[in-house]
Amino acid sequence: MLVQSSDLVSLFEQALQGISSGDMHEIGVVIQVGDGVCKVHGLTRVVLNELVHFDGGNSGIVFQIAEDVVSVFVFERSIPVAEREIVRRSGSMYTIPVGSELLGRVVNAHAQPIDGRPAIKVDGRYPIETEIPGIIDRTPINESLETGIIAVDTLVPIGRGQRELIIGNRGTGKTSLIRDTIVHQKGKNVICIYVGIAQRQAHIARLVHHFELHDAMKYTVIVSAQAGEAVLNHYLAPYVGCTIAEYFRDQGHDVLIIYDDLSNHAVAFREMSLLVRRAPGREAYPGDVFYLHSRLLERAGKIFRGSSITALPIVQVQGDDITAYIPTNLISITDGQIFLDTQLFNRGVRPAVNAELSVSRVGGAAQTPAIKKVTKALRLELAQYQELRGFAQFGAELDDVSKRRLARGERAIALLKQPEEVTYSFIDQTLMLFLLQEEILDKIAVDQVSLFAQQFVSYISAVYNDLYSLIGRTKDLTEEQRVQLRAIATEFSKLFIAPEKAEW
Questions:
Q1: Alpha carbon distance 280, 289 (integer Å)
Q2: How many CA atoms lie within 13 A of 75 on its CB side?
Q3: Are residues 83 and 61 in contact, defined by beta-carbon separation less than 8 angstroms?
Q4: Which residue from 349, 485, 495 is spatially nearest to 430, judged by alpha carbons?
Q5: CA terminus-to-terminus distance, the chain
Q6: What is the mean pLDDT of residues 175-199?
Q7: Alpha carbons 306 and 379: distance in angstroms, whole number
Q8: Span 9-59, pLDDT tens digits
Q9: Among residues 88, 125, 361, 405, which one is catalytic?
């Protein structure tokens, strides 16, 4: 029960016994405890997000400051906090240990290892909230961050320093998409950070096993705030992950950070806000929930020294409703979104990227010249296919031009399908899309399109390796190379033997 205001003075006087007058503003006394949050009287000079220490051994962060009391969320549930306990200022914001030895480790929301391995050697400490780089300190995004997923790299390209939202219903392949993206960064000088917010321990364990299997943990850090942990850890985890990303960025590395997912983060913030009696707004979220994520995602970007932080936040929706409160907030903050459609997923189109609702506001600046040249009309062709498919479903008669467009769209969809744990370099993607652009796939059965394209890439890599390597070095596709590729495609078409049933 909250201590009556008439008793605050006497309690505080008792707490001040033996304390010098110079320290009066540096201590407080607990007057209420419950649900992981404490009301503290005193601490008149404390600041928001400051670290405070309890005499009983616990610590916490100042979450709200009122006229007479401050609200402090405690770190450890296992260490009890009692009423009338003394609380002392630390004089600093909450900081976490950082260092290069974080690579390959699984840490909690306080950057402490939880993988059972030896302690991490610390290079320094960073505050979890820092000043965001201004416009003058940033440079335009002009370098591609390959995901290895052809539907993403061609339709919604991601640049180094971009913030691209991944949005979709439960079970539509969001985690699979980012998992393959992290594995694809091997050898590309990109540090990856995965932040799991209120995820199950089994999910994190499977992810670690997958990364170890593909030798990806060497350049990856996993920050895990598991579902059973205190709500404060769910709130801190994204900021801790971003702080680790800033450390590696300051060391000159490009960093990719994934927040999985920010809908859980918003729920944690809502719970904390309601516990301290903040006024609820839409869907019971407090009014500053937009600021919660904007100050997090604004820390991503490419700075003038050349290093960058690329953010891929994930948000889960219900019933494919992207107009919900938190999703629309995040859409307005980020530089585009990749929408994974449940209907496409159920039809077997995987990854289920909806080309109509997905967008990248960086666009062609994040693509190599070779990819740009072979994807000029791809989005238009997919849009025409979706429209004509609707007519064809109702038995409408189509003219020959429409039938050709429908058949071409079917082959484009088949080419964009990609199994899990398979990624393609931009060279492979260029060669595959070249086949589509040059209408070479029009003569191939739809169920054999993917197999034909994969074998065509393997054929060029094995027999015409000089051409394959040249495209990789120049990142461009010249007219002379196009002529050569047309001849090779004709040659390969004669060698290709279609199986009875195409298999991945």
A1: 10
A2: 20
A3: no
A4: 485
A5: 64
A6: 96
A7: 31
A8: 565 556 555 555 556 668 899 999 988 899 999 888 899 989 999 999 999
A9: 361
